[in-house]
Amino acid sequence: MFSVKNFVLHYLLLCVSYTCGALNNKRFPDNFLFGTATASYQVEGAWNIDGKGENNWDKVTHSTPSPVRENATGDIACDSYHKYREDVDILKTLGVNHYRFSISWSRILPTGFTNKINQDGLAYYANLIEELKENNIEPVITIFHWDTPQDLENIGGWTNEVIIDLFEKYAELLFKTYGNDVKYWITFNEPKQTCQGGYGSGEMAPVIKSPGIGEYMCVHNVLKAHAKVWHMYNDQFRENQKGHVGITIDTQWAEPNSNSEEDVQAAERFLQFTFGWYANPIINGDYPEVMKKLIADRSEKQGFEKSRLPVFTDEQVEFIKGTADFLGVNYYTTRMVQHTTDPQTMVYDWIADMEIHSYQKDEWPSTASNWLKIVPWGFRKLMNWLKATYSDIPILITENGVSEDGSSLEDDIRIYYFQEHLSNLRDALDDGVNIFGYTAWSLMDNFEWMKGYTEKFGIYSVNFSSPNRIRTPKKSADYFKYVMRTRCLVQESDCVDSV
Ligand code: NOJ
Known about the structure:
eight-stranded parallel beta barrel, 13% strand, 17 helices
């Protein structure tokens, strides 16, 4: 097990296996938040218990043939619905400042509409929040982490604008019920996965392939829904509840393949298409200019009467602008990006619309997830890009983490990943980026969407064959605990206080 005594030796050994830089030895500020995250469908289980309605992931995982690896489902998952007290005990042992979890819409409103409010569902989250508060752990709540009530999915889900008002009603119920105890609300987690995965490439629930059209319609509605919820909180709840409402956006860092102007612009385009797609409307009021222009031009060449990217009215632009109290950011990895000589003009999908070529370097350490290569310096660069692009909006890192195959509790790769990423994050604080917290993904191994249970992201392992879903700390849990206790990444005697 990890111990402070063998810390230096341990770190040196890790550096033999991976390429290490010197770690930043400054302490994180006292008010910097450290925590871990999960999401409802990935951990709760109890998919049809106590009045919960079906959602899109229930539907997809129960379909035959199933698109999910090994036909896995979240029917039981980590059984956190029944074991939340144990989860909070673990969080307490770890010494986290906050716990980020999501609420299952269909557990509270089984049909997605407010025609029926499931009291057992409301009670579950009330108990979880109470347990957290009693243990001095700040709840950070994601209102939507990909699990759309199936009744709404049946009518087009996020591509049907009917969902906007329904989402607002659902959020209103949450603010009314839990708002006095919750200071951080996240409207959406990674809308790119909901929209591009769900309705573009079809790689996520509801598995609809409508590339170049579905994802843009979906994002348009997501942004309107987000803005409505922010305004509702601002007008009706902020004064009394004094909380903050943000959104979590994910992106990989895009490193230009060369210093050429074309590659630099291609990398910027990648970031605008991936992050700016949401952040630009929310912070500045509209889609990034480069997206508007490229998609309009390509749509025209492709024979569409108007751009495949929907257009906001001036009124909508004003309404959406300025609707985030903070930005949640999920960072995992980086891609090299270059100008493409083959813009695939007649292909319409979000990736082709970017007109770039991207790849990951072979020399970057691999993990159990084929998309996730370890590139810690990309984290610092992304943080600096965010500051340069969106000024000083407060940033909460809502996810960062790495997967392994679960063959050992000695997850050195994860310790290395945390050390290097946290060090780059500490550097970014030195650079003046306004980051107020870090959330490790994940508290425990869980249902990793289409990969089922084959890619493990937890600092706790879960035995999915034991009826009791026994949780066991991995070596990285001890390291993370050490960091949270000392607020420092290196041996305590080498830590220096931050000024
Ligand atoms: C981002 C998602 O929010 C989370 O649900 C997922 O498990 C992790 N990335 C790891 O892929």
